[in-house]
Amino acid sequence: MNQPTVSIITVSLNAAAFIEDTIRSVLSQTYPALEYIIIDGGSTDGTVETIRKYDSRLAYWHSRRDRGLAHAFNLGLAQARGDWLVYLNADDYFQGPEVVEGMAPQLQAHADAEVVFGQVALIPRRGLAPGESPAIYGGPWRWQRFRFVCTIPHQAAFTRRRYFDRVGSFNEDLALAMDYEHYLRAGPGLAAVFVPQMVSVMRGGGASLNNVIPTLREWRLAQSLNRAANPVLIWGNFLARSSLCLIRQKLGRLLRGGDGRRGDGSTGKPRGQSGHKLTWP
C-alpha cells in the first residue's frame, strides 16, 4: 500500500523564540512521505533568518504580510500537496521524531475518516517546573459535546485533503476559532477518528487567559453560523463558560497576589497559536 503524503504547515509572526524548535521537530520526523511549508506574516524579530537556515529542506516558504491567522492557514493550504494536512504552529512542536510515522497506519486504516487526531500536551512558555505535569488536550469525538466545545486540537489533527474540497477553506472573518468553525461545518456527519496517542506539545502564553472570552465569543459565532444547536443553548453555553473563566481568572490573580502576569513577565503571545486551546471539566 502506498504511504499517504503528509503536508505540515507552520504559520508564524515574530516567533523567533520558539520557531526553531518547531522546525527541527518537523524535519527530524522519520516518516519519508512528508512536505513542510512555512507561512510567515512578515516577521521582524529574527524569525525569517531562522527559517532561511532550513530553506533547502522546505517544500515552500515565504515571509510577507497577510490578513491574519486564517488567511495564513489558507495560504498554506494553497501550497500543500499532501493527502493529509497538519497545522503545527510556531509555538508547537511534535512530541518526538516518530510521531507522523506512528500516525500513518491510522491514516491508512481509517479509509473513510476526514480527520484523524491525537492528543496535545499543554505546557507553560517558561517550561515545566520540577514535578509539574502538562495538561492533556484531545479526546474521543462526540458531536453532542463538540457542538459546544472544541475537542479537536489542530496541532494533533491530520485532516484529509478531500475534506477541504468538500467544505472549503478557513473562514477569514474569524481570528481565533477558524479551525473549530471549519470542522463544525460538517455537522454531526464529520468523520472524525480519535487515536489515544500524544502527537504534539503546545506552549501556553500569558495572553491565553486574556484570549479566553474573545475565543468563546468566536466559538459562539462559529456555532451560530453552522446552526450547531438551538440559539438559546448556544448563548447559555457561552454565558456559563465565560462566567466560569472569569471566576478562574479572578481566583488566579488573587492567588498570585498580582496583576495576572506570569512568572516570566509575559502578557502577549505571538501569532502561531489559535485561541481555542481550552480545557474544561
- Which fold name corresponds to the CATH topology? Spore Coat Polysaccharide Biosynthesis Protein SpsA, Chain A
Give the tally of β-strands. Answer: 9
Helix content: 25-40%
Write down the overall mean pLDDT.
88
> If helices are DSSP runs of H or I spanning 4 or more residues, what is the number of helices?
10
Just give the CATH class.
Answer: Alpha Beta
Main sheet, how many strands, which sense, barrel?
9 strands, mixed
Number of domains: 1
Structural class: alpha/beta
Would you identify the CATH architecture? Alpha-Beta Complex
Distance between the termini: 41 Å
Secondary structure blueprint with pairings:
Layout: E1 6-12, H1 19-27, E2 34-40, H2 47-52, E3 60-63, H3 69-79, E4 84-87, E5 92-94, H4 99-109, E6 115-123, E7 135-137, H5 143-146, E8 157-160, H6 161-167, H7 178-184, E9 192-203, H8 207-210, H9 212-225, H10 231-256
Give your account of this protein's structure.
This protein has 281 residues and is an alpha/beta fold. The chain has one domain: Spore Coat Polysaccharide Biosynthesis Protein SpsA, Chain A. Helices cover 35% and strands 19% of the residues. It is built from ten helices and nine strands. Strands 1, 2, 3, 4, 5, 6, 7, 8 and 9 form a nine-stranded mixed sheet that branches. It is globular and about 50 Å long. The termini are far apart. The model is unreliable at 259-270 and 272-281 (pLDDT under 50).
